[in-house]
Amino acid sequence: MNYRDYISADPRMMMGKPVINGTRLTVEAILRKLAEGAGMETILNMYPCLTPESVRAVLQYAAELVANQEDLEDLP
Description:
Largest sheet: 2 strands, antiparallel
CATH superfamily: Winged helix-like DNA-binding domain superfamily/Winged helix DNA-binding domain
Number of helices: 3
Protein name: DUF433 domain-containing protein
Radius of gyration: 13 Å
InterPro entries: DUF433, Homeodomain-like_sf, WH-like_DNA-bd_sf
Strand content: 5-15%
Distance between the termini: 30 Å
Shape: globular
Number of domains: 1
Helix content: 40-55%
Pfam families: DUF433 (PF04255)
Number of strands: 2
CATH class: Mainly Alpha
CATH topology: Arc Repressor Mutant, subunit A
Strand order of the largest sheet: 1-2
Organism: Dyadobacter sandarakinus
């Protein structure tokens, strides 16, 4: 899976934050729900416009960001 098929960023939408294509749902919002303990089924019920693949793309996107971090000491 290529997360770029599901996630994009446009400076004219949601202040340029990455969103799930075709929605105004930010990657951040989905990650926060997952961090709060929401599972795949819960997220899909909350946001019927999402697919399991789009939620997995959010996780893949986050993993790519972490993998490209130079140094954990630079984190805020």
